[in-house]
Each structure stands twice: as structure tokens, then as C-alpha cells.
Amino acid sequence: MKLSAWVRSKEFFPNCPSIPDAFGDVADLGVGALLILTSDCEGPPAEALDAARDAGLEVHLWVKPTLGVKDPVTRTIPEALARAQEAETGIRLFRACMNHPVNAERGLANIRDLIANTAGRIAGIHIDYMRNDNALLLRKWPCRCEACQEGRLRWLGRGVLTEADLSDPAGMYKELEMRNR
Q1: What residues in the chain have per-residue pLDDT under 70?
Q2: Which of 39, 93, 100, 146 is spaced 20 to 30 A from 64 at the CA atom?
Q3: ∠ CA(43), CA(48), CA(50), 5° rounding?
Q4: What is the pLDDT of residue 129?
Q5: pLDDT, tens only, 60-74
Q6: Which pLDDT score is estimated for 1?
Q7: What is the helix (H) or strand (E) element at residue 169, kind and residue range?
Q8: Are 95 and 66 in contact, with CB atoms under 8 Å apart?
Q9: Residue 110 to residues 28, 35, 52, 56, 143: CA-CA distances in angstroms?
């Protein structure tokens, strides 16, 4: 059986005194594959990929392509709802809207660049569109950008969800389905 290990690129690599030693130790423990989270599609340092290969480790990258989008179209909600979100949760969720075609196009360009930059040194890429967002926050405060409103027109007949829509499991299922296209 081949064991796998998960590494968060932004936290591990800058703080690791010797990547080759660390990966050698991991391989000695019986790990055969690394899943490296590279949220912004930058990819791990080249020396990390070389060290993994030298240690006999198979590398799979786990990327969240829209997090690395430059100048994204961000989620849109009215300011009053943004204040309510912040008051209730302590955060405002205004990252790239994954439904917007501009962000999807730029996210795919990020993936193409990552593939080109890591060619021959990785065994696979896990493209994580599903978990880019905090689904609980989006359930209560869904995006109102033009792409999301246009998407809802197709299944709801209007672009903005009402309080009744937000409490209807069937409607929320359709909202999730729309966000995951």
C-alpha cells in the first residue's frame, strides 16, 4: 500500500530548513505520494519538485485556480448585507466569484501556466473549484454579480434570491449546482 501525505505549500516550504532532508524522511516513513496544496496556482518551488523526485515521491498538486486570478471580478452583495455578514461572522467574503466567466477563463489560464511550469515533474493536478468558497456564508449571503444573477434567471426566473428561496432546500440545491458548473 502506498501512503500519501498532504503539504500546504505556503506554510511548509518557507519554514523548512532542508526540503531534501524533509522529503527523504517522509519517503523513509513509507510515504510514496505528496499532495501539495498550492492555492494560488504558483506551484511549489522548483527545488521542492526536484527534491520530491529525488526522494522517490510522486507529486500531485492541489490548486484553487480562482485564488490566483489577477484583478478578479469579485462577489457582489449590497453593503447592508456585507455589514450583516461581517457583524455575524467577523469576515467579509469578497473573493473572486467563481461563476463569472472572466474568473473562470483566468483560472484556467493559471492551470495551463502551472502545467507548463511543472511539466514532467508532477503526476497530477487536483483542481479544487468546489472548496474555494465558504459555502455556509454563500448560502446566507449569495453573490449578486451579473454572472450569478444571469445564472439564476435560467432556473429561478429572477436574478436575486429571496428569504424564502434561501430557506428552500430545493432552491439551495439549484444554487449549489449553479455555482459548481
Answers
A1: 1, 39-40, 129-134, 181
A2: 146
A3: 110
A4: 65
A5: 998 877 777 888 898
A6: 62
A7: helix 169-179
A8: yes
A9: 34, 18, 23, 27, 23
- Name the grid cell of 180: 459548481
Question: Are the C-beta atoms of 128 and 90 separated by less than 8 Å?
Answer: no
Cα–Cα separations (whole angstroms), residue 32 to 86, 93, 96: 43, 37, 34
pLDDT, tens digit, for every residue of 72-85? 898 899 999 999 99
Query: 448585507: which residue's cell?
Result: 81
Cell of 132: 474555494
- DSSP, collapsed to helix, strand or coil, labels residue 139 as helix
Query: Which class for 146: exposed (0-12), middle (13-18), buried (19 or more C-beta within 10 A)?
Result: middle
Q: How far is CA 63 from CA 60, 75, 125, 135, 146, in A?
A: 10, 20, 7, 18, 26
- According to DSSP, the β-strands at 3-8 and 31-37 are parallel
Quick one: how far is CA 81 from the chain centroid?
24
Q: In this structure, how many other beta carbons lie within 10 angstroms of the beta carbon of residue 165?
A: 17
Burial (0-12, 13-18, 19+ Cβ within 10 Å), 15: exposed
Other Cβ atoms less than 10 A from the Cβ of 14: the count is: 8
